[in-house]
Amino acid sequence: MSPEPLLRVERLGKRFGGFRALDGVSFHIDRGEVLGLVGPNGSGKTTCINVISGLYAPDEGNVLFAGRSVGGRKPHLLARSLINRTFQSPRPFLSLTVRENVEIAATYGRASTAAPAVDVVLERLGLAAEAARRAEDLNSAHQKLLDLARALATGPRLLLVDEIAAGLNPAELLLMADRLRALAAEGMALLVVEHLMGFLERVTDRVIVMNAGREIFDGRLAEAVRDTEVVRVFLGGAAHGG
Amino acid sequence: MRRGVGEYAAVALPLLAALALAPLVYSNELLLFNFIMFLILAQGLNAIYGFTGYLPFGYVGFFGAGAYGFALAVMHLDASPLLAMACAGVAALALGVVLTPLLRLSGAYFAIANLAAAQAVYQVISNPALQDITKGPYGVTLSSVFAPALSYGVALGILAATLALVAWLRNARLGLALQAIREDPVSAAMAGVAVVRGRTIAWLLSALIAGLAGGVFAWHISVFYPETAFDLSFSIFAIVFTLFGGAATQLGPILGVLLLYGLYNVIGITVPQYFQLIYGVLIVLLVLFLPDGLASLATRRGFRVP
Ligand SMILES: Nc1ncnc2c1ncn2[C@@H]1O[C@H](COP(=O)(O)OP(=O)(O)OP(=O)(O)O)[C@@H](O)[C@H]1O
Ligand SMILES: [Mg+2]
Asked: To pair with A156 at 20 to 30 A between CA atoms, which of A192, A208, B213, B215?
């Protein structure tokens, strides 16, 4: 086998009561690679990010980061060992300023000297002009950027992104896609959960598809849309929803 | 949010000076002492509530533990007042350590469990079976160490230290981390903050402050009963004063104590029924219209409150 990938997830399982939110999920991401993660609502995408980022301990299987088992480690330790994430609905520290939000991550979560300075992160994400504003006064697109800024300030090597494109306008979408690609180009590994296929296409061509906690497809995005089971799951979901 | 020492000193020093000089011109020294005690308790509660969001209804438990830590050290170890003060701090800290698992509870569960814990400590101390140790329900008399002027001075010293601590919390790395935990513990963890550790530190600091307040209270009044030291009004007052003035600031709890405890002493003692009415209305208005206290009137207009 080729050298160990940065992230290797092995037969991951997570139950809530009797409900299996994750059921034997396995995949890997290399340095500089973007892996898309798609699936209908409730299929376990966010749960997968929650387990990898340490908010939940896995019930089965393991998470290997740079070859070392990190499943079940506390999130602040994972943050300091270069794994970070954004949230599906952004969770900034609302009454703190944008700068303070990022400063906290830079102070506590900084694992490597390679982590960028607060100003560099703000500048890069176009938040410099908002630095002194309280997070609660930002619009939701800016709050999403702030979530991302906080994650980046820790200097992660693996970034888990949960539906960051939802609610962005077309111009913001293009910019966000560029930003994620640029991060990958610098060597960061990204797991990008996304419903918007147009956005996902812009950042990667490799996806896994989940349904009801199981992985039903791992391959190229172009092939996923022709895969009968994937199509059935999405159309079925749409039929139920509509 | 970060600002110079000056702004805090501008609040704290005049207050300390006024309280130091007041006994020269005002004869009701016990009232002045009570002001100091509530100023300490409100800032101590601020350390845990203002910086982590836990509202400890059983806060008086630490106060009582401190009072009895002081009393037991004097009665059984023949300790000097200063050594007994250290015992007061240790007793409250020990109780804080024992109760640390309560931090796993959230919201109302934490408040109720903390209240129950304070009641449990009270029940143990006031138990007649322990009369040989705690004097049970009959209360303690510490006339051998009675020293009103000295204990007043020590209380002022504790207040000064507490104000400095809160100023430090607002500026230090730790303070920013604690505020992050209060805003959103999940996000704080992802920012690399050790959430459990941060909460525990704030909790123990808060316990220590209440314990020292209890110790100096025991020293100053020197005769008291378990129901005095574990009086739930200590918790309620500290909470109301802090909320009224504005938690997570240094100035807010000070304003709360000066205004509300002042009002209490003007109205409450002569016509207590009016006081309860005013107090009740105030709390309702506060919760409805000013949940972040008086200090938020200024912060909303863009002023910085130390
Ligand atoms: N903490 C929890 N407790 C109980 N059930 C949970 C919890 N978190 C997630 N679930 C359940 O697990 C399933 C998967 O949820 P998850 O949030 O991972 O889905 P998702 O794929 O991210 O969906 P969406 O596209 O709507 O964000 C859902 O049925 C959800 O209700
Ligand atoms: Mg989700």
From this structure: A208
Which residues, other chains included, contact B179 with Cβ-Cβ below 8 Å and sequence gap of 6+?
A93, A95, A96, B51, B248
Flag whether B80 is in a domain.
yes
User: What's the domain count of chain B?
Assistant: 1
Q: Which two tokens stand for residue B222?
A: 């020197």
Q: Can you name the residues that pair with A29 across neighbouring β-strands?
A: A7
* Predicted local distance difference test score (pLDDT) of residue A241: 40
**CB crowding B288-306: b at 16 or more within 10 Å, else e:** eebebbbbbeebeeeeebb
Domain encompassing residue B16: 2-232
pTM score, whole prediction: 0.86
**Residue B241 included in any domain:** no
CA dihedral of residues B139, B140, B146, B152 (deg, nearest 10): -60
B174 touches chain A (CB under 8 A): no
Answer whether residue B9 is part of any domain: yes
Residues in CB range of B146: below 8 A, 6 or more apart: B222
Question: How does pLDDT run across A27-58, given as a tens digit for each residue?
Answer: 999 999 999 999 999 999 999 999 999 999 99
CB-ligand 1 contact for A24 (6 Å cutoff)? no
**A104 in reach of chain B (CB within 8 A):** yes
Cα R_g (chain A), whole angstroms: 17
Are the C-beta atoms of A151 and A105 separated by less than 8 Å?
yes
Chain A positions touching B184 (Cβ under 8 A) are 91-94
> Which numbered atom of ligand 1 lies nearest the CA of A163?
27
For the record, the structure tokens of B238 come out as 């500290």
Q: pLDDT band at residue A234, thresholds of 50, 70 and 90?
A: confident
Residue B90 lies inside a defined structural domain of this protein: yes
- Do residue A96 and residue B194 have CB atoms under 8 angstroms apart? no
Which of A68-77, B79-88, B266-275 shows the lowest mean pLDDT across its residues?
B266-275
Q: Cα dist. B230→A167, B44, B59, B125 in Å? A: 54, 16, 9, 10
